[in-house]
Amino acid sequence: MNPTVQSYFDTQTCTATHIVFDAPGGQAAVIDPVLNYEPKSGRTTTKSADQVLAFLATNNLQLQWLLETHAHADHLSGAQYLKEKAGGQIAIGEKITEVQKTFKTLFNLEQEFPVNGTQFDVLFAADAKFSIGRLTAQALYVPGHTPADVAYLIGDAIFVGDTLFMPDVGTARCDFPGGDASQLYHSIQKLLSFPPATRLFLCHDYPPAGREVCTQTTVASQKASNIHVRDGIAEADFVAMRGKRDAGLEMPYLLIPAIQVNIRAGAMPAAESNGVHYLKIPVNGL
Ligand SMILES: [Fe+2]
Predict the structure, then answer these.
(1) pLDDT tens, residue by residue, 4-50
(2) What is the DSSP letter of 134?
(3) Which of 80, 165, 232, 244 could join 169 via S-S bond, C-beta 3.0 to 4.6 A?
(4) How far does residue 72's CA lie from ligand 1's centre (Å)?
């Protein structure tokens, strides 16, 4: 059985959120939801997540899963907000524990901050299988962008997270802690070994001038024309290209707030004695 997919694009962070379900009235998964965040004021809003809630309500869908492909550095997760409003279990790949350890140190988080993934409801082991209503699903382990990335195979569709972008944009960066271009190359080959017509749903799009935003492609089109990993590009060439390119990239502008929230499964750090939640900035730490 193949899923129906409804996608929303957050233009502030260029992030796609996908709602996946078998039929109206059934169970749904939401992949990579966004909590809107304005860094100048430190204010959060829920416009993106509220679009998701409205679609679920209109189609009488029960929210079963909130699936994260990884601890995002470019947007704050809306998973906790959606869980509060609509239920469901928040899941991510089990290697999130490595990411939590790295950033607990960088942000000098409270001693009691757990680095065993217990902030999430479910941790998927590599290539673990699960179901979304009547749909069969699998959490494909695809490290490289971070050590914890998973892609979700659901029917004839794969939600690739930060591995592949559109063919004219290429691939995800590998310079975050624990990132590895060689691993990403092999993870991408794993994704491209699925049948040519397999639908690939992206986590981001950064369209070149003149092209509309698009967050869906196929294995066939990636193999034919991805500027970084089309057929015929060797691992060594990919790794060299990625290293050179990553050396010139700036940090994502929401990295500092996003990571602190996303390693907590979309929750803010506990409120302080005045009831306000605070995020830290490690001065000269990055
Ligand atoms: Fe990412």
Answers:
(1) 999 999 999 999 999 999 999 999 999 999 999 999 999 999 999 99
(2) T
(3) 165
(4) 4
Structural contact between residues 141 and 150, judged by C-beta atoms closer than 8 angstroms: yes
Given a cut of 70, the residues of the chain with pLDDT beneath it are none
- 71 CA → ligand 1 middle, Å: 7
Q: Give the distance (Å) from ligand 1 centre to CA of residue 70.
A: 7
Å from CA of 187 to ligand 1 middle: 15
In the reported structure, the alpha carbon of residue 149 is separated from the centroid of ligand 1 by a whole-number distance in angstroms of: 9
Q: Backbone phi, then psi, for 191, in 5-degree steps? A: -65, -40
Q: What are the structure tokens assigned to 217, written together?
A: 């492609």
8 Å CB contact between 242 and 179: no
Q: Side by side, which strands form the sheet with 62-67?
A: 4-10, 15-21, 27-31, 62-67, 89-93, 122-124
Neighbours of ion ligand 1 (CB under 5 A): 72, 162
Q: Where are the domains of the chain?
A: 4-249
pLDDT at 175: 95
CATH topology for 4-249 is: Metallo-beta-lactamase; Chain A (3.60.15)
Which residue do the tokens 């009488």 mark? 60
